Queue: 3 jobs
Job 1
Amino acid sequence: MSKKKVRIIIIALVVVAVIVGVFFGVKAYNNYITQQQIETRQKDIESAYADFEATNDRSEKLKILSQFIEDKPSTADEISLEVVEAVEPDYTETLGKMKAYFTDDYNSVIKKNTFSDIDIKSDREKPISAIENLSKLIITVEDEKAIVFKSDNGGYKNISDTINGLINKYRKNFTDDYSAVIKANTFDSPEKIDDKDKLNNAITSLTKLKKTVEAEKSAVYGNDEKAYNNIVGTIDGLISKYKSRITTIEKEAEAKKEASYSTENNNTSADNSDNQSYESNNHSGNNSDSSDYSSGDSGSNNSGSGSSDNSGSSGNSGSGSGGGSGVYNSWYKNGDGRISYFNDSTGEAWDDQGNSWNWKEIQKNS
């Protein structure tokens, strides 16, 4: 082999050795750089989680989570695929722990406010409190969903459906209760009811229900003003009907009372008129008989002077039996049934017991 060929071979071997050296050197360098990038990314992940754990401020945690999502390693940030693949497990695990802080809180509130049918029927305050707590939670979930449930619409739907399902269940329990009270106090053809107690009891029950609905409005109806106004309008309508019917019943009763009183007065007046006519005729006949008797028996002691007791008691001598002349302008029936007669022109007065007097003389002497 000539020296020239040997020299060429040696040069070729040196070139190959240099190339190989450069290749392995570059590879080693790249591996070093990659490892440095991986370690840097892992430290960034650890630092972000440390900051997340260090704060108790929910809004601050949400900001850290939001930034952590934005800083997700990606080849778009001129990071090699090798680095992305190397840090992805740590990143995914840390992201899950951060999100769990929020989702675990959601589930904790849901658990504390989940009650059985027996619970919500036996203790009215439990579902009211639960509705208020769950309503606040759904607002929180809505505010945080863009970050906590980013790229996880299924997780958001599960949480929101669970919350809304419980709220609707509890609200239905109340509205069913309201409807039951309304149904129990709704009468067919109330205008035909004459039982005031029945109507008053219904009014009392409906008035109490209205106060309950008003007190529970926020929990049961939330922002649904239409549903609230509908049930209050139904209650008010029934109360108004029943009150109107009671007023009608009372007016009808008063009208019957007045009609009965008027009939009784008319009957009494007719009886009094008959009695007065009878007494007048009877008294005139008695006096006429008495006058005839007195004039035909002048020798008797009853010569028109009446009884001595009457003369003494009245201070006046009347003519005829009992002292009455038989002519009177008015009469009076006192409480014990005794009737007195009066002659307005002469002042003579007498009663049906045989007593007589002159009221003008009594007034003059008094």
Job 2
Amino acid sequence: METLQPYLTYAGIGLGLLLGILAIVWLVATFSFMRRTSGLNGFLVRFFKTLTENKVKTAYGMTTPTFQAETGLKDFRKFVKRNKLTQYQRLSATVPELGENGTFRLTLMIKLSGDRELPMTAIVLKDEQQAWRLEALDV
């Protein structure tokens, strides 16, 4: 047992160093992710608040050119009306999942007036000016 004593000390030091390195890597990854998603929740709240003010065209302008190419303004207005998004009151979102090409996928729970809740999936990204844009919105 006495012959193992010096080695156990080194093993303890090695284990401590390994745990310390893992903690540092986890912290760096967490802060990096938080920095990349900074302002995302505020953007989503602004988007839905814009819809409550019946500024559908302004909200449509907060989408990406890809979204606008796939969904015309007229179809977007129908989508907003059909899902009663102008009755938005509160938003809760899951932790964003990193997708392809810098996109983030979120599951949203939109609380509408009258205690109605609407689950949605949103894909968002930052444009060249580092402003958030909505890439996709599905019910």
Job 3
Amino acid sequence: MPARQTQPLTTVQAQTPTSPAPAQSQTEVDYLSTDYGRIAPQKRKKNKLKKLIILAAIVILGGGIAAFVFLRPKSYTPAEIISAFNTYSNYLLSGEKSDRPLEGEWEPLNEFTFYQLDLVRGNSQEDVTAYYNELKTLFGDFAQKYHSADTDTPEDLDGMVENYQTNLDFYYTYVLTESVSEEALSEKYFAEGVSSAVTYAEQFYKDLKNSENEYTKQYGELQAELSTLWINVFNEYQNNDCFRDGALDEDCTTVQYFTNTQVQSYNKRIREAKDTIEDLQDSARVDLLSGCWSISEKLTGLTESQDE
């Protein structure tokens, strides 16, 4: 019987198969005790997340502290506040930006006046506008420093500063806001009719009448009343055929002025409204001028109380 031939093992057969690691080994890695100096993967993730949360909290806290230190409003000393107010006052009175103390005492008869009161002769509208814009800026700088004082301020001085700001805001509006002239309203009335004239006046003074500034609101109401009275006068002229050839006849309106009792009544109320507007303006102007001395005196007292 011939000898049985043994076939050589193929390469695949010759390789010893590698058995996969028992499942138990993976389990042991996952839950290996830290007694051997090794950390389970799950714990490593949790600790990393915890560190990130702590780091983020530190960054946020540090940022908050930095913002508080660098962004908090600066406080000002009485000397700095007085310097700012003197700069405003001198610019109001002389047009000069100087923080020197005011000289003399306030007396109405001294006739102190604004450097560029209203539309002073020789000054253009642009110059006057620039002057009042700078006034508001300088007083705003003082007010900001005053409200950031590094010491307590008395309530009566707080009230004086607030009232002064109200007066300045009104006077600024009074000087730089145009009003409806009798001529412009007359043209609107006779060209487009009474309804158009009424609407024109109402829209013109709408913002002033809705102002939160009590003086500005009163001013707007008085100006609107003036427009209404003029329109009533125009009605009388129209009813008495004074509008001829596209214009008011001067002879006719003169006759109405002296003989028409309704026209006379309206004209009387027009004069009263104009006088009230002038009184309102004069009162604000005097308060602004006298306030330079009264507030300055109070601020000096603030310095003295701090020294004590």
